[in-house]
């Protein structure tokens, strides 16, 4: 079985000006190990991507965007394409975050185009999936995850599945302070891995599947040490350099 490198990603959402991003990195970079594991990815808003890329040059930190359009170019006012992100030196892109699904009507049909477009341009997609509270209470978690994974990855060739990073993010745990139990995270992630396995055994062994939802320095070590959980996508707690550094160091 291939070793999967652990992965810690910081989703800054709509936070931090360029000056605040600079201050974050001035504190954060000296606190992290200069090692290949875990992979560390910071996802700032579009406006500070370039600054963060320049300041992380010669550090182990990679930079990802939080969204992109599926077309390379065109009459899509306000949108940004994958080739534009690659041109800036961006490494990856979060796709299908629940906040985009909820507030901006991001659909599985759009994601079925965005994920292969990201891969085609050379970006690492970080695909977010997860159920809401009502769906969990109605015992629909498995159905929701199955539908999202099947639809969003439908156009990704089996041989490239391992290049996608998946974040299991139960919506009821995002920004709420409620965290999935390690067992709930592990169970959902195992289901996602089985869905990938139904298309490619090698893909399922190599793909990184993260947990996201109110991960903080005090619960990160237990969550990311669960069998099959390859790291975390951290929102609120990644805005503080000491907190995010402590989670990175817990994953070393
Ligand atoms: C997220 O934004 O992906 C997230 C998991 O947020 P939080 O850690 O704040 O719940």
What's the helix and strand layout?
Blueprint (H helix, E strand, L loop, with lengths): L6 E5 L6 H11 L10 E5 L5 H8 L4 E5 L16 H7 L3 E4 L2 H6 L4 H14 L2 E6 L3 H5 L3 H12 L12 E4 L13 H16 L3 H6 L1 E5 L7 H5 L6 E4 L6 H10 L2
Parallel strand pairs: 1-2, 1-8, 2-3, 3-4, 4-5, 5-6, 6-7, 7-8
Helix pairs in contact: 1-2, 1-11, 7-8
The protein binds phosphoenolpyruvate.
The site of phosphoenolpyruvate has 14 residues, from β8.
Overview of this protein structure:
There is one protein chain. This protein is an alpha/beta fold and 252 residues long. The protein has helices at residues 18-28, 49-56, 82-88, 98-103, 108-121, 133-137, 141-152, 182-197, 201-206, 220-224, 241-250, and strands at 7-11, 39-43, 61-65, 92-95, 124-129, 165-168, 208-212, 231-234. An eight-stranded parallel β-barrel has the order 1-2-3-4-5-6-7-8, surrounded by five helices. Helix 1 (18-28) packs parallel to helix 2 and helix 7 packs across helix 8. The chain starts with 6 loop residues before the first strand and ends with a helix. Bound molecules: phosphoenolpyruvate (PEP). Phosphoenolpyruvate is lined by residues 11, 13, 169, 174-175, 212-215, 233-237.
